[in-house]
Structure formats: C-alpha cells, structure tokens
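Weekly sync, protein design subgroup
Attendees: M.S., D.O., the rotation student, P.L. (late)

Item 1: inverse folding check
M.S. brought a backbone from last month's batch and wanted to see whether the design step gives back something sensible before we order anything. D.O. pointed out we never logged the input encoding, so this time it goes straight into the notes. Structure tokens as presented (184 positions):
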C-alpha cells in the first residue's frame, strides 16, 4: 500500500514525476554544476525521496539543495530515464515553504525570490529598486552595497520610478490563478 503521507506520493500525483524510476546511475549529479555546493546532490535527494520515510522527507524539505538548484536541466538531459529533477525541485520548494521548514542558509534565496515576484506582480516587470528594497527588508541587510547606488543612478542603471505594463490587472489575475492560489 502506498504511503500517502510521504512527499513522493504528492510529488508523483501533482507533477507526474515518478521517483521510483530512478536507478541511481548518478549522471544527474555528475552533470550538476552546483552538486558540490549542495548538502544533498540530485541523485541522493531522489534516493531520499524513494525511501518514503518521514525522516528523509524532512531532510529533503529542509535541505539547501532544493533552493540552490538552478533548474538548468543538465540533470534531465543526462538522465537515461528522463527523471525531471527541475520539476521535483519546484515541487519541493513549494512544499518547503508551505510547511515552513526552509533551510536557514537558504533564507536569502527565498527572500530574493519573494521580492522578485512581488516586484513583477505589482508592476508587470522587474523594478530593480523595488526588488532590492524588498530583499533588504526581508533579510535586514539594509546597508549592504548601499555605496553602489549613487554611481548606478548617475550611470542610468537604476530608474527611480517603476515602469508599468499597460494592463496590470491581467498580471494580478495571473498571480491570483497561480502563485497566490498555491500559498492559500
């Protein structure tokens, strides 16, 4: 009988990626440019999911690996079984946020991600000053790199005011149907 409480059960039903198809050849890890930086390289992360234990699920959701994955797709390109590890990572990030078990080292990555999405949600495009302000407010790194601002403004690299897309309501609708819906 399938353990419906394990992460891989939800992963397989929501994304269609079946982790049990992985036979641990290690090609994903060999091709991953960040494998050495990860606490669990891709092949080990998939193996932990295959065990279907609560302890290993917690290790995976609390790992740094799921947040530093670039989704470059080197892993899936090398995989003889075409296991979609980028899709796995996206699902695991979502679950990690939902269950509030984000790795401490990964909090700046999550803060940047949230600030980026918030900027796009409200302007329809990236507003750099809003992104930086949102990131700094979330991480309390208020004075980090502040000395770069005057020269960037002088060179025209930063716009004081954001540019907006024509129909901001369409962008808000996209967010309400996707990201906002997932966070509820």
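Designed sequence read out in the meeting:
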């Amino acid at each position: 009988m399938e353990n419906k409480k394990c992460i891989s059960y939800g992963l397989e039903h929501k994304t269609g990626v079946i982790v049990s198809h992985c036979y641990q050849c290690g090609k994903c890890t060999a091709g991953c440019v960040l494998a050495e930086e990860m606490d669990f390289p891709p092949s080990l992360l998939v193996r932990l999911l295959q065990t279907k234990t609560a302890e290993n699920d917690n290790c995976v959701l609390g790992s740094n690996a799921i947040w530093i994955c670039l989704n470059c797709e080197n892993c899936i390109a090398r995989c003889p079984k075409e296991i979609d590890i980028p899709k796995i990572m996206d699902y695991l990030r979502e679950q990690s946020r939902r269950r509030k078990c984000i790795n401490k080292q990964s909090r700046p990555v999550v803060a940047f991600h949230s600030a980026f999405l918030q900027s796009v949600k409200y302007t329809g495009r990236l507003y750099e000053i809003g992104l930086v302000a949102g990131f700094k407010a979330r991480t309390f790194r208020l004075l980090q790199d502040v000395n770069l601002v005057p020269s960037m403004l002088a060179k025209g690299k930063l716009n004081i005011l954001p540019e907006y897309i024509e129909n901001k309501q369409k962008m808000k609708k996209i967010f309400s149907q996707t990201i906002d819906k997932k966070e509820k």
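Discussion: The radius of gyration is 19 Å. Residues 28 and 75 are 4 Å apart (CA to CA).
Action: P.L. to compare against the previous round before Friday.
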